[in-house]
């Protein structure tokens, strides 16, 4: 009897968690089919939206297929059993395009939307959201939207081998674009629950012609200052409710022709952004190629950012940025070149009582042939270290190498600039310190044109070897094929890393 009961429970478990693969074919499919075989596929997105998917289930779209509308799948996976949206067959990736449509209660148009769901994998498809007619005031849009509200922690999202393109979102808000993870809360404070994401993995995705941002996330659980803890009162008089998302990894992606920022992480602890390529970001409005905002311990490494566009009146158009409300950002082994408004920004807005940017470390990066300036330090930033970087400059630097700037009435302080190499073949002015204080500039090397305002440099120990490295690096920066980041190749070349 006990053995029979055990067998019954086992069979019941197998039935409860049986995994189903659903197939969708826009040509041969029928919505009257059960969708459970390639020979009986669904046809439309509406059939998928009516399913309540279980852990381990998959929805596969036929390659070469095209669908229009909103994909709003239901259900959550569990640990070790993600729900998968993907492709089957041969040919081009299946394409889903919302065309600017949105559901009645949605605040923006999303081609694929998840709401308070977890353990999902979306892969091997092309996502578009192009509102026809090229409207001057397009609706807010996302290619993929993951929305969370008063749910606690949502776990495990994987996005791989996606092309997210032609999302003509609004340029009037930073909260729309290609892949958007957004955490909101109830209007009634008593109903609010601290909410975050734990585990977001983005790999080998291509973001092309997207407005306003390529990847972005946001959270209402964002208030803090430099020293307060959760539940304490911060300097602006508000309660610290900073509840960061964790285990964020974005790698091996390409961001091209992005209307604003290519990639921004917000309200995260230890986000890792590596081996990504950013080409021609901020083509329509002010923006830097990528940066952390309101994050702790962000790590940016082996990324390449180039040809970021300066539009008349812009305030940003650099390769990299350590933005405000950040602590202990590390930007290392990256390659920045040919950007219209400098290679790097470190900033914090002084008018915000609780704002800060503390402990940024910029090391072992290559900044080559930027325009206007090389680095801008702006606002109330503290304890910034710029060390062991290579700066290759031409006459395109028309203002100053290092630009210290007040923002919100506050100047940067305690900046250390050491052991860098300046390979200068153009600009005459090195520093614009303004009213900054407690800065340290020492043990830097200069080769090429001397600066008119600063001379405390060493000479290179082996100028011939440095000349060869610069020549080889420039040839990579001037290449025609921008398909993957070459940051690791050029930084290895420069520092002979193994």
UniProtKB/TrEMBL annotation:
Keywords: Signal. Gene3D superfamilies: Single-stranded right-handed beta-helix, Pectin lyase-like. It comes from the Bacteria. This is Parallel beta helix pectate lyase-like protein. It comes from Mariniflexile fucanivorans. Residues 1-18 form the signal peptide. InterPro entries: Pectin_lyas_fold, Pectin_lyase_fold/virulence.
């Amino acid at each position: 009897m006990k053995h029979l009961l055990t067998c019954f429970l086992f069979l019941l478990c197998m039935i409860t968690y049986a995994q189903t693969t659903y197939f969708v074919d826009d040509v041969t499919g029928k919505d009257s089919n059960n969708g459970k075989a390639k020979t009986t596929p669904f046809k439309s997105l509406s059939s998928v939206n009516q399913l309540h998917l279980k852990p381990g289930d998959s929805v596969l779209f036929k390659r070469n297929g095209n669908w229009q509308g909103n994909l709003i799948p239901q259900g959550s996976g569990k640990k070790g059993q993600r729900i998968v949206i993907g492709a089957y067959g041969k040919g081009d990736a299946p394409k889903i395009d919302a065309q600017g449509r949105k559901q009645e209660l949605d605040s923006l148009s999303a081609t694929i939307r998840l709401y308070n769901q977890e353990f999902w994998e979306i892969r091997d498809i092309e996502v578009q959201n192009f509102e026809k007619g090229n409207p001057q005031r397009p609706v807010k849009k996302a290619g993929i939207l993951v929305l969370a509200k008063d749910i606690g922690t949502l776990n495990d999202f994987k996005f791989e081998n996606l092309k997210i393109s032609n999302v003509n979102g609004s340029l009037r808000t930073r909260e729309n674009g290609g892949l958007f993870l957004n955490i909101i809360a109830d209007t009634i404070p008593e109903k609010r629950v601290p909410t975050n994401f734990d585990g977001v993995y983005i790999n080998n995705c291509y973001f092309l012609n997207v407005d306003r941002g390529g990847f972005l996330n946001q959270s209402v659980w964002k208030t803090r200052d430099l020293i307060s803890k959760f539940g304490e009162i911060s300097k602006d008089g508000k309660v610290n409710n900073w509840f960061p998302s964790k285990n964020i990894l974005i790698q091996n992606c390409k961001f091209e022709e992005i209307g604003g920022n290519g990639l921004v992480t917000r309200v995260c602890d230890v986000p890792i952004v590596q081996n990504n390529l950013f080409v021609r970001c901020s083509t329509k409005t002010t923006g830097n190629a990528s940066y952390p905002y309101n994050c702790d311990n962000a790590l940016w490494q082996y990324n390449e950012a180039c040809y970021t566009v300066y539009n008349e009146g812009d305030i940003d158009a650099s390769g990299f940025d350590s933005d405000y409300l950040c602590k202990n950002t590390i930007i290392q082994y990256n390659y920045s070149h040919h950007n219209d408004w400098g290679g790097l920004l470190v900033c914090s807005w002084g008018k915000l009582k609780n704002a800060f940017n503390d402990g940024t470390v910029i090391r072992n990066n290559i900044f080559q042939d930027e325009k206007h300036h090389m680095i801008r330090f702006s606002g109330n930033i503290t304890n910034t270290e710029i060390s062991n970087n290579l700066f290759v400059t031409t006459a395109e630097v028309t203002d100053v190498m290092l630009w210290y700037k007040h923002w919100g009435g506050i100047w940067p302080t305690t900046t250390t600039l050491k052991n860098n190499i300046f390979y200068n073949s153009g600009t005459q002015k090195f520093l614009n310190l303004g009213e900054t204080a407690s800065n340290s500039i020492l043990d830097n090397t200069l080769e090429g044109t001397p600066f008119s305002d600063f001379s405390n440099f060493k000479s290179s120990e082996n100028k011939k070897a440095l000349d060869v490295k610069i020549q080889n690096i420039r040839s990579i920066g001037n290449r025609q094929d921008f398909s993957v980041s070459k940051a690791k190749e050029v930084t290895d070349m420069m520092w002979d890393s193994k």
